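Objective 1b: paired records.
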Amino acid sequence: MTIDSSTQVHAWLEPRADEMADLLTALVAHETENPPGRGLRDCARALSDAMTGLGLGGEIIGVPAVDAQEDPCIVRATVGSGAKTLYFHGHFDVVPVQDREQFTARRADGKIIGRGTADMKGGIVSMLYGAAAAKDLGLLGDGKIVIHLVCDEETGSVAGSGYLRQHGLIAPAAVAMVTAEPSAGTIWHAARGAVSLRVTVHGRAAHVGQANLGINSFQHMVRIAAPLEKYVRTMMDKHTAFAMDGNDARGSMVVVGGLSGGGSNFNVVPGTSWFTIDSRFNPEEDLEVELKNLTTIIENAADSIGAEVTVELTQFQPSASTDQHHPAGQALAHCVSRVVGAQPPFEMCAGILDTRWYAQLDIPAFGYGAGRLDVSHGPNEYVDEQKMRAAAAVYALYAGEMLR
């Protein structure tokens, strides 16, 4: 009598529940806040050590820093030696905390609570144990899992995933890629693109007692930003054809003034002021066109009041999608249904995903993970332990499906 592979995988994973929780707790303690991107090398070493303990090997690849990143790097491992390649992809940087206590993970009521548990150190743990299960249970067939763990997904992945692409470390012939983003059991087969800008308004500083000699950059900034409100509403009303979570707005999202600043003191006319624009455009939109639309609105508003303005492009990342009916997508859905007992929906992620780096090479790429997007980045971020193990089982079975 042959034991079903899903039963074997569960039997391999369940006794390791405490191991998985302990590894996640240790990873949360590494304060890999990005920005600015600190503590990256130490976390990479912890990951490499954990991978070695699981028999996965692994190497740490140093990469050139972007902005203020401290010692950025990639952790890469190859599990198996067959001809086919399946990519497991993750990131170990996290967004800044609301409270430093978030770097001390807590186990409570079947959950692990702390920064990065959902997005996506918990996902990394699931992937590592899924890969180890596939290796130990002989599910790799005629293939191999290549694990990529990058350090800067939260700020665009240029240092990490960009390095992989630039140096030919992503094989275009790969059968598929999956990243353990917090999709809450949904399969994300599409993601938005991103355009981010920093707008600097130039004035002339002057003492408050001689304010007539200055040019108030803040007052100019307010008037330059105002016309963008109409653009925000217009893009929000342009709905995508992709299915999305019911809590997500289906229009493209644009945030004006997420960050802003300027001036030198309360009693000085501000000589320089600045604000940011951050967008998540649906795949139907042309990012070059929308970048031009944004800059035109800003420049026309500045010209109308005689203001000097500088527009800096800080992020330009394309959208990505894989047909949900692609055999690689259907295979992933089949593996999910074997583990959780229900067919998962295919949806578009409300944000951007590292799937784009693979999809641009025509590799079918998907986001699937145990974490929840609605708690990610928040003060009470958590991952459900049982779902973390279930995701690990999905990854192991997916390797068996794609590499046989």
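Objective 1b, second protein:
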Amino acid sequence: MPLPDYVAESLRAHMDAFKPVEITLPWETPEGPKVPFRLIFTAEQGGMVWRSNFNGKEWKPALAAAGLIPEAVDENGRYESAREHGTHALRHFYARALLDAGENIKAVSEYMGHADPGLTLRVYSHLMPDSRERARRAIDSVFQRIFGEDHGPQTAQ
């Protein structure tokens, strides 16, 4: 997926402050060959960040501090379990931002790692904005290029 300049600059700043750590992990499957990787984000103890730990110790407390989810935790110190509160919501945010900006479904499918744009449509079509105004602007811009200026509806009278 394309890496926006803002994100690239933020990653560079993070990597200046916290140098990437090289660790060895299995490749493709848990039993796969071990391959060295440089991790940009690591756990407090070093090594890889486990999604389940990140979700409960960093992600959900940040959402609660931002007022996006209730701050209440259960007797075990866990936040309410809700799919829309997990890091998976970042995929939906990314897809929605691209679709709102008018990115085509084939590109969104590729960026999301889907093998088929049809899957992307089935999963994210509810996020697609109403395109009536965008369609009007597209046709207007074609006519403006052809005729060189905007004559408006009075020209046809």
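Residues 88-146 form one domain. The radius of gyration is 23 Å.
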